[in-house]
Amino acid sequence: MTDFNPKDAEYLSKLQDYYANWKSIPSYASLCGVFGIASKSWVKTILTRLSEAGFIERTPDGVWVPMRQFFGRPLAESSVPAGMPVSVDSGQGELFIIDEMLIDAPSKTTLIPVKGDSMIEAGIHDGDVAVVEKRMSANVGDIVVAIVDSEFTLKTLDKERGKFILRPANQAYPVIRPQGVLEIFGVLVGLIRKYRK
Amino acid sequence: MTDFNPKDAEYLSKLQDYYANWKSIPSYASLCGVFGIASKSWVKTILTRLSEAGFIERTPDGVWVPMRQFFGRPLAESSVPAGMPVSVDSGQGELFIIDEMLIDAPSKTTLIPVKGDSMIEAGIHDGDVAVVEKRMSANVGDIVVAIVDSEFTLKTLDKERGKFILRPANQAYPVIRPQGVLEIFGVLVGLIRKYRK
DNA sequence: TACTGTAAAGAACGTTTGTTCTGTTGTCAA
DNA sequence: TTGACAACAGAACAAACGTTCTTTACAGTA
Q1: Catalytic (active site) residue B23
Q2: Interface pTM (ipTM) of the complex?
Q3: Which H or E run includes B33?
Q4: What is the pLDDT of residues A105-164, one digit of tens each?
Q5: Residue B3, pLDDT score
Q6: On chain C, which bases lie within 7 A of the protein's CB atoms?
Q7: Residue of B nearest to A100 (CA)
Q8: Domain that holds residue B144
């Protein structure tokens, strides 16, 4: 991964605690107190590392902001769905609850289990759960759920000689060139995978 | 109430827009650009009014922070399909991405951003978010977060001639054969990916 | 013992920040 | 047509801020 080490994890945890209270990342001087150190320059080193590791980032103004998914309520508290969760019916009678990071438009979002390995080169595996936002249009390059021969298909949308085509991410599968109008069900906005223990 | 007028509402809306993007309230100088005015002192007047009206407040450090209920997702968007159970925001704390489907032991579970492509053949990409359950032991075949040379590494746990080894899912990376005890931070239990639109 | 690398401290410094105070402009009412 | 007030502009300034550079402490290693 990165050169993110246990020591950094300790500082991250302190920053998360502070942020949970104040919802802001304060000045380097204040962070000295938060981290329990005396050196502003060392604070900078720590923040730079945390950002390289992907936990925080900077706005164009140079202000540090947390990547929200890592600075929420402590996971311990979220055993009951926290925040303003969204319930989405997978269509199979199962009920999943997912948060706003993956879902922008709850009423238009569905979960669809991925079958087959036609998109495996895009890191989408059999058994993964696709988070799909229902839309009838998409851009070239988007991964879309299209309806081909009355079946759902997950493919990358592309264009060839002015016509839309569906490109699998697996060389063993053919490119789909729909005759007539390509029917798009939605666009892939997220992916969830669960590893069995 | 206060002398909060339509003009202030317009500024509030601009601030909300900015905040929706950057999750922070910038300096007075930057806010000049956001509000479309040229005077820092007027920015201060506006912010003071917004705080008197209860839309924002200041931390002890003097940093402006929004009152969350006014700076969240617009209510219209968070409506949930009828018939589905709805949980209500406690008012405090952020929203978390993941639900009970991915997390069994909330207090022991952490999210870690994936860096690099050493596990790409397992469909784990740079930028994905790993859901990790903290444990000190794991089984052969599990994908684990191990601490190697004081760094976090995501690899598949395997055994070779009675000794544990860490196997990357990318032929360009070497197998890691730790000398001494292999230090395991946790086990990968889930994966989340978000596609940008 | 000497060398190396990491963690942290601390001083120096130019820039940015928020604040305050004084002007300017436009509008509406008397 | 004058006065009052709200909406802004702009200058001045001390305090705070982030950055850079140098130094110290310490543990591991050769």
Answers
A1: no
A2: 0.62
A3: helix B28-35
A4: 656 666 676 777 889 999 998 878 788 787 878 888 999 888 776 667 889 999 888 888
A5: 52
A6: 7-12, 16-22
A7: B97
A8: 106-192
